[in-house]
Amino acid sequence: MDIKKKFGKQVKKLRLEKGLSQEKLAYEADIDRTYIPSIEKGERNVSITVIEKIAKALKVKISVLFDE
Amino acid sequence: MDIKKKFGKQVKKLRLEKGLSQEKLAYEADIDRTYIPSIEKGERNVSITVIEKIAKALKVKISVLFDE
């Protein structure tokens, strides 16, 4: 599977486990609220700084976002 | 430490462990050869697709690039 899609699936899985809405995750990560849906769909070639923001907002290490 | 710098240090560490030159890593990862030095210095906000290419070239899982 494409890495962007894999990442998006993992973000969605962890977000739902934490009981966060897409809007809440965007707020906690300080990224635009329209960005999360497209990330979760695997449409975004996210940068390392955005990856770090999402990990912090989900309270996980970055490596957890790439667990297989 | 800044995530870009942390990532750059880890890429350099793994590259040297594998005995690869910056040029060889760039070739294996199919990225521009001028890109690796600036990544290792922590100057680049690399994208997830570049992260994946570097991991494949180093023959490690992406999560290893974010080990602490």
TrEMBL record, chains A, B:
**HTH cro/C1-type domain: from which residue to which, for each copy?**
11-65
Entry keywords, A to Z: DNA-binding, Transcription, Transcription regulation
Q: Provide GO CC annotations from the record.
A: cytosol
UniProt xrefs under Pfam families: HTH_3
Q: InterPro entries of this UniProt entry?
A: Cro/C1-type_HTH, Lambda_DNA-bd_dom_sf, TransReg_Diox_bact_type
> Is DNA-binding among the key words of this record?
yes
Molecular functions (GO terms): DNA binding; DNA-binding transcription factor activity
- Report the protein name in the record: Transcriptional regulator
Species source reads Flavobacterium aurantiibacter
